[in-house]
């Protein structure tokens, strides 16, 4: 079941300092994003906008092959939250392996990042010619002794680290056979 945005949805910061989305009918969606990581969190009490709705449906469309419908909605709403309210990030590309083929991702695209020991799946929520802001769709991962990437955690990476999920899905069978 996919949630359909309406004019009663409202963003706000909850008592526990997390960004929340009121969905009406006593339903709340809690993001993992704390007030200290949000732009203008002090005045944050906003309706789910037309732009939010456009992003939400873009992300839902791009997530069509990802998980259950509930997981897709959760990923899409977290993606909208990061795109709209997350403070600008500095790239943290050094955690990921550089790629020989440069890939310019699209908004909402599922991508892969290589942390040497495994591949992580992320969704692009903001793009530029050189770097992209992504949220992790993988389980929580330790990137170093001091850096952990939680599920739906936001990170900015240079585009030369990104592996297209289309490319990766075509390569996967070759790796398993060899």
From TrEMBL:
Residues 3-87 form the Cell-division protein ZapC N-terminal domain. It comes from the Bacteria. Residues 88-165 form the Cell-division protein ZapC C-terminal domain. It is found in: Cytoplasm. Transmembrane segments: none annotated. Its main location: cytoplasm. InterPro entries: ZapC, ZapC_C, ZapC_N. The keyword Transcription does not apply. One of its GO terms (biological process) is cell division. Signal peptide: none annotated. Keywords: Cell cycle, Cell division, Cytoplasm, Septation. Belongs to the ZapC family. Contributes to the efficiency of the cell division process by stabilizing the polymeric form of the cell division protein FtsZ. Acts by promoting interactions between FtsZ protofilaments and suppressing the GTPase activity of FtsZ. This is Cell division protein ZapC. It comes from Oceanisphaera pacifica. The lineage of its organism: Bacteria, Pseudomonadati, Pseudomonadota, Gammaproteobacteria, Aeromonadales.
